[in-house]
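ENTRY TYPE: protein
WANTED: fold as tokens:
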Amino acid sequence: MSAIHLALSMSFVMGATGLVFNRTHLLSALLCLEAMMLSLYLLLAVWSLQTDSANFSAAPMFLLAFSACEASTGLALMVALTRTHGCDHVKNFNLLRC
């Protein structure tokens, strides 16, 4: 495994551990998800460059588009939950209560 692959894999793992251990605010969880998506995008881009295959050259762009959609949906949910509950603490969100 090359140094680039190791660094990008470790960035994905650090984003996942940040998501697991730091769940006090919704914004920090969304930032960890974005870090994971960015490392996946970079891993896919490096992999498609190394294999020189034309079949997977558009895959990083699709992943980047889905990542942007995920980020906008997450921020919209965070704004809606902050307006209804008053803060973005994850422990205060109870979806069973209307």
Summary: Helices lie at 3-21, 26-51, 59-85.
